[in-house]
Design goal:
The protein has 102 residues and is mainly beta. Helices cover 13% and strands 32% of the residues. Residues 3-92 form the 2Fe-2S ferredoxin-type domain.
């Protein structure tokens, strides 16, 4: 079952269907979230979840216990368990590839 992810600052929404990560779902929807390692260690993608719940594809994502309590998530390894609202100020739209049909 899919869940809706809302980027609070931009007002954009996209669906996230398990087992895809929040980052994969954003990219599928044409939204770029900052990322680098895609395995939960570099923290480039860290953002704040203001509502909702996630589970992680890995046992030890690169977040401290305090960060987890405060609502920070790593979208590259986070799977939406409920609808989510996140703050990701550096998010942007992915460029649309040019059409090749005539």
């Amino acid at each position: 079952m899919g869940h809706t992810v809302t980027l609070a600052g931009q007002g954009w929404r996209f669906d996230a269907d398990a087992p895809e990560t929040v980052l994969q779902a954003a990219e599928r929807a044409g939204i770029r979230l900052p990322s680098s390692c895609r395995n939960g260690t570099c923290r480039t993608c860290i953002c704040l979840s203001t509502s909702g719940a996630v589970r992680y594809k890995i046992d030890w994502p690169g977040l401290s216990p305090d960060e987890k309590r405060e609502g920070y998530i790593l979208p590259c390894v986070a799977i939406a368990e409920t609808d989510l609202t996140i703050l990701a100020p550096a998010a942007g739209k992915l460029p649309v590839p040019p059409r090749t049909d005539a």
